[in-house]
Amino acid sequence: MLCIGLDVDLDKIPKHLLVLDDPIFEFNKAIIDATQAYCIAYKPNIAFYEAYGVKGWKALKRTIDYINDEYPDQFTIADAKRGDIGNTSAMYAKAFFEDLNFDSITVAPYMGKDSVEPFLEFEDKHTILLGLTSNSGAEDFQFLKSDSDFLFEKVLRTSQTWKNSRQLMYVVGATKADYLKTVRKLLPDSFLLIPGVGAQGGSLEEVCKFGLTGDYGLLINSSRGIIYASHQEDFAEKAGQKALDLQSAMSKYIN
Amino acid sequence: MLCIGLDVDLDKIPKHLLVLDDPIFEFNKAIIDATQAYCIAYKPNIAFYEAYGVKGWKALKRTIDYINDEYPDQFTIADAKRGDIGNTSAMYAKAFFEDLNFDSITVAPYMGKDSVEPFLEFEDKHTILLGLTSNSGAEDFQFLKSDSDFLFEKVLRTSQTWKNSRQLMYVVGATKADYLKTVRKLLPDSFLLIPGVGAQGGSLEEVCKFGLTGDYGLLINSSRGIIYASHQEDFAEKAGQKALDLQSAMSKYIN
């Protein structure tokens, strides 16, 4: 249930990689090889690739191809926060599900049903809708109340009525662990992607306490805490150790 | 005040372009040359480039470079609907404002203040926030009422309190023209980007009636209605004619 976020920043990766042809991919490959035994998913954060233009997009393609070829059992998430009118969402779905062959993508809900359904049309793929996010700005709109519901509750409830909603998963921030109870009332069985453990300050114990359904149902993401565990030549080995530590910490809360 | 949307779909462009090395760019170049006298802005829809992977990203880069080099007075909009936690939004801002050198980008509001402010830090750039969108799914959440405000009103009002909010523009769909009065009460001077005239059914007359502030303040977008005016060899000429027609129709509402 550990997901590792691949947020590759050239300012943060070990300096000895920068002389290589494709340092972003080489960093990812080493991290993936060292951590794959301890996680079940990888989540490249698309912004970090787009920031490097064509070079970044090529590194993203090589990274997802590497995971799909070498570790086909890993679940892959394009953390892209897309969403637009229907014909445009259909193009985003094509980009991430067909061209790049990710298993899933994160999608923003503001534009409603017809902005999300084109993603849901891909029946062997998953669409991960933003429910409650881990950042401070979540307070601005997600907690606005109408009738007796918060906006994020409306998003969860309404989206469950959409076509192919069984393929929906949801983002729920670890920093909002006390609301996981509310989320679980609305979505007893849905898979939740939980960012915000670690660098953003979320508590693993609380997330597991309120979010687990039986022994499963949570995909807990860690990015910077794992991939930047060391900035030296031993970066991959240290990332593997951190991933193992986090996986062990999680396993205490299962059973 | 006409903005032309560059939503390039290889299934819709003239067949004779498909034999060229970079048909997406060649199509855009011809459209831009033929229409630039009648518009003040171009808006590539990023999904349509991402759908073609590395090849699409290269065509996007060539397109924005071409506009910036040949027609530097044109205002450029990356229609990308991005938005994420702070450090990720900063990477998206870097991608579109630095690497690609767009003048502006469209951004989704669901994640609140700290997801938008990294874009606003670029003081010579504009951030175009989704207010009220033109699609049917806008009804799902944007019209939820809390206190006496719709969600979209809260988004407009709250965002005006953010740092560097003078660089904000807003998306307001043409299909919601009757709400433009409400929008103009909250944002008397802001520039509005209005999609949805044409293919989506919005009325130019109503948009101008309710949205104009003095002689300005609106950027009205047309995409498919202009760029796919013809699917033959005369596609650029016909696009120029359509752009001129729309510009003339708009000028009736300006004194």
Automatic annotation (TrEMBL), chains A, B:
<dbReference type="InterPro" id="IPR001754">
    <property type="entry name" value="OMPdeCOase_dom"/>
</dbReference>
<keyword id="KW-0210">Decarboxylase</keyword>
<dbReference type="GO" id="GO:0006207">
    <property type="term" value="P:'de novo' pyrimidine nucleobase biosynthetic process"/>
</dbReference>
<comment type="pathway">
    <text>Pyrimidine metabolism; UMP biosynthesis via de novo pathway; UMP from orotate: step 2/2.</text>
</comment>
<dbReference type="InterPro" id="IPR011060">
    <property type="entry name" value="RibuloseP-bd_barrel"/>
</dbReference>
<dbReference type="Pfam" id="PF00215">
    <property type="entry name" value="OMPdecase"/>
</dbReference>
<dbReference type="GO" id="GO:0004590">
    <property type="term" value="F:orotidine-5'-phosphate decarboxylase activity"/>
</dbReference>
<keyword id="KW-0665">Pyrimidine biosynthesis</keyword>
<dbReference type="InterPro" id="IPR013785">
    <property type="entry name" value="Aldolase_TIM"/>
</dbReference>
<dbReference type="InterPro" id="IPR011995">
    <property type="entry name" value="OMPdecase_type-2"/>
</dbReference>
<keyword id="KW-0456">Lyase</keyword>
<dbReference type="GO" id="GO:0044205">
    <property type="term" value="P:'de novo' UMP biosynthetic process"/>
</dbReference>
<comment type="similarity">
    <text>Belongs to the OMP decarboxylase family. Type 2 subfamily.</text>
</comment>
<protein>
    <recommendedName>
        <fullName>Orotidine-5'-phosphate decarboxylase</fullName>
        <ecNumber>4.1.1.23</ecNumber>
    </recommendedName>
</protein>
<feature type="domain" description="Orotidine 5'-phosphate decarboxylase">
    <location>
        <begin position="1"/>
        <end position="239"/>
    </location>
</feature>
